[in-house]
Write a structure and sequence with these properties.
It is built from seven helices and nine strands; from the N terminus they run ββαββαββαααβαββα. The chain is α+β, with helices and mostly antiparallel strands. Belongs to the MAD2 family.
């Protein structure tokens, strides 16, 4: 069982939601209204988990040049869990802008060239899109501080029937869980090792040791983020293009850990997995070829491994994407 949303007017995720302008209109033929919802499924990607989702919208009116900018530029590894969550939220905001631009969810002329993490990227200049992304990433950061997030996904839906087409997943299950009282406590670093090396006994042991000392260079967080953004552009180029004369809805889903509290209105029983629909068989017992071609396609992006920040990113094309694209093309051809 899941709570789904069919229009922006139905938006409600309780205390975990981000504010959103429901009265705005799509910007041109390549965009669609967003919404906010709480659900315990992944919209046709065959996995049913506990998620919180939000979506974005912009207007087709005049575009102001004022925009919420994301000026977080972490050059070093975060030394506290709170700083780590802030870095993740900043990186997620830049990634969402890039996804919206690369997939032409909104007209690409509404995006400005900017630099984040010392890399040229695109950022929407529409204030409402910027506000939605900022609020959504703030909600992600708030949940990260509670150590409740397993993954964050950007799902592109077809506006006509809410059919999921693409999903961009940021898996955060490897990020450590920190007690609430320790979110601002510095992580363990090499200072303890350096202090131990000052001990004469330790120095003598190091001199007697014949094993060469390996020096691990410090990992620059900006370099990790730049690599992900570069691979994200490459992964998007490998996807099947979305028709430009159709409207789409970008949504953000927060997948909670199994130990996290459920969103309002969802009980613990709703967390249980459900059986997937079996594949079709013909009379000879062979799998249906059409069904096998319609399976979801996964494109890996990159793994981030920087200190306590460990995250995997990949892109999925939904099982019914190609059938939905064929339907869209048939409608516009007629």
């Amino acid at each position: 069982m899941a709570q789904t949303t069919s229009s922006p007017a139905n938006a409600d995720i309780g205390s975990s939601s981000s504010s959103f302008p429901h009265e705005a209109l799509p910007a041109g033929p390549a965009s669609s209204p967003p919404h906010t919802t709480a659900t315990n499924n992944n919209n046709g990607f065959q996995r049913h988990t506990n998620t919180i989702s939000t979506s974005s919208i912009i207007s087709n009116g005049n575009h102001n040049n004022t925009c919420h900018t994301h000026n977080h530029r972490p050059s070093q590894l975060p030394d506290t869990y709170a700083a780590l969550t802030a870095s993740i939220a900043s990186f997620l905001a830049v990634s969402i802008h890039q996804i919206l631009y690369l997939r032409a969810i909104y007209p690409q002329s509404t995006f400005l060239p900017v630099r984040h993490f010392n890399r040229p990227v695109r950022q929407s200049r529409h204030p409402r899109v910027c506000t939605w992304i900022t609020d959504a990433c703030a909600a992600v950061e708030a949940q990260l501080l509670k150590c409740t997030i397993a993954a964050v996904s950007i799902v592109i839906l077809s506006s006509s029937n809410n059919q999921p087409l693409e999903r961009y997943t940021f898996d955060m299950t490897q990020i450590p869980e920190v007690p609430p009282g320790d979110v601002r406590t510095p992580f363990d670093n090499d200072n303890d090792n350096s202090r131990a090396s000052e001990d004469p006994k330790n120095q003598q042991q190091q001199q007697q040791s014949t094993k060469p000392q390996t020096h691990i260079p410090p990992v620059e967080l900006e370099a990790q983020f730049r690599a992900v953004l570069a691979r994200l552009a490459s992964a998007c180029a490998r996807l099947t293009p979305l028709p430009r004369n159709e409207e789409y809805i970008p949504t953000l889903h927060i997948v909670l850990r199994n130990t996290a509290d459920a969103p309002a209105g969802i009980s613990n029983a709703d967390h249980l997995w459900i059986a997937a629909e079996p594949s079709k068989l013909d009379l000879n017992g062979e799998f249906d070829r059409a069904g096998s071609r319609g399976r979801a396609k996964t494109v890996p992006v990159r793994t981030v491994d920087a200190g306590e920040l460990k995250m995997e990113i990949w892109v999925e094309e939904a099982k019914g994407k190609f059938a939905e694209l064929n339907r869209i093309r048939a409608v516009h051809e007629t």
